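Quick one - first record:
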Amino acid sequence: MNDSLATSELPPEVVHAFTAAAMTALQELAQIEAIAELPPQSEPAFEDFVAATVRLMRKVPGTMTLVLTANAAAGLAARYLPEGTTRTDEMIDDVVGEFANVIAGQSKTVLKGTPYHFTLSIPVVARVSSFTRIPELTSGVLAATLSFESGKLLVVLDLSPCPGA
């Protein structure tokens, strides 16, 4: 596992908010059951990946990044999109971005009134050829890994408490 992604000092309520939101999004939007891996495990560095990053805006800004292999992202899109939809890379990227948006939005609601509350940006989605080439991962903490039928979904957070919140 990338040392920068070691499980760190994120409070359990923050980890739970994002993990529960990711599991709920998979269940409700794509009818996919997922299992949380404990402790979270990262993906190997030698596959193609799709990463969707949402900026978490507040006094101390942060990010949430969803990371899936390209194959897992395609499997997620196949379950989410209506049958017969052509699944281009652009369409698959849109699906991953939609999931990132939903997960961040649900987490925002759960964290309201805490030092971790935030507003969010629209997701930015990128395809990379290596796990280690996702810039948001260098400062992030691997909060959750969810295993599902097509692969894994990683939730990486860079989120510090805001003093006085």
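second record:
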Amino acid sequence: MTLAPFPDGWRTATVIVAHPDDIEWGIAGAVAAWTATGKEVSYVLVTAGEAGIDSLPPAEARPAREAEERASGAIVGVSAIEFLGHPDGRVVEGVDLRRDIAAAIRRHQPDVVVAQHFGEHWGSEPGAGWNSSDHRAVGRSTMDAVADAANRWIFPDLAEEPWAGVQWIAVPDDPSRATHAVDVSGIGDTAVRSLVAHEQYLRGLGVEDPVAFATAMLDGRAALIAARFGGRRAVGFELIRGPAAPET
């Protein structure tokens, strides 16, 4: 199926993920393309990824990973970055998580919410890797929290005013389910540099040449989408209508 261009009638987006680096494995290219055209993007990280580096205890990894995410965000034009403080590796899908994400959506008031891929597997091909429990919990809770953020009676204890202005929820990372794409052919190596900014994390994964690693990985992902987007390098999303979706 040929992918449609990502809608353009919006101004602000909030990307909601579990860990520092989750955005940089593919979404950051789209973020760079958006901010280059004047759109405002904010990040919400449910954890600080403090359990993600085997050689660093969580108390040391937390500030290091937060700093890497802030540096990475700056490369693609994002300065509004917040961490919700849930425990890395032990995020629980449920009412408490939905409340925290709904509150964040109300604070940022986005037109577009980018939710984490929450499928059980990475992709739909046989033998695809198992998705992280944190990713599944955050992605599913984000989908529910968009509606929660719009309804003042679900979490009446929240100080933030309801926000029903989300037009679209965009879910990345599964090319087989993508419906729309963001052209990233004009952003150069920005997405690569944003991933390379996670220096300590990549080193903890045993990556010896971060630039070559990031370039090969991101090029491969972009090529999968390009085949369905007129040969243009792109980031794919499954687009789901939000409470304020424009009439078609």
